[in-house]
């Protein structure tokens, strides 16, 4: 199938951002499918095949979301840590437009992921989850030219430590000032959407605030109103 949107067009769209991304970090493919279809209809820019969904259903989940999220970018949160070239091929073949590789991985893995992704016209994003010094790691990876840095607070850290992405605002601002494109993820909801946009985030990732709500469509419309209102 291959990516629907070229990497060049994807980066052009990101440069016109900020963009909204819904993270389908759920294991119910039918629910994920409904949200993906509705996200495309209401105008969400990016639909993410979350890691739990990918692990539960494999590349079938990518193909299904690609089919339903017509007009939206499909990002696949592979969290790649090895075999980056092979995982890029899996994502591209299933119709994904972007994938993630962990900054915790070796430089060789990240380089291989980015290189093969570009061969396939796929966008590669580096996820900074669990990195103690994200700015230092970002500078180490600058030569590899990742398309996006994902500044990310994991769900377990949020739950156990009460840390939210707002605590990373200084890092986000500094990364943007250093010329990196930044996506932010981790417990984003309500007015924090506007805040993340105001400090320069190119992509604002929203998960449970949408997917756990009894009316995900209304939540997506609310997010659009908050960001663009």
Radius of gyration: 16 Å
| CATH hierarchy class name | Alpha Beta
Give the biggest sheet: 8 strands, parallel, barrel
Indicate the structural class.
alpha/beta
Gross morphology is: globular
* Structure annotation, total helices: 12
Report the portion of residues in β strands.
15-25%
What is the count of structural domains?
1
Helix content, binned percent: 40-55%
User: What name does CATH use for the topology?
Assistant: TIM Barrel
Q: What is the N-to-C order of secondary-structure elements (H for helix, E for strand)?
A: HEHEHHEHEHEHEHHEHEHH
Per DSSP E runs of 2 or more residues, the count of β-strands stands at 8
Please give a structural write-up.
The protein is α/β, with parallel strands linked by helices and 229 residues long. The chain has twelve helices and eight strands. It has an eight-stranded parallel barrel with strand order 1-2-3-4-5-6-7-8, surrounded by nine helices. It is globular and about 40 Å long. The model is unreliable at 157-162 (pLDDT under 50).
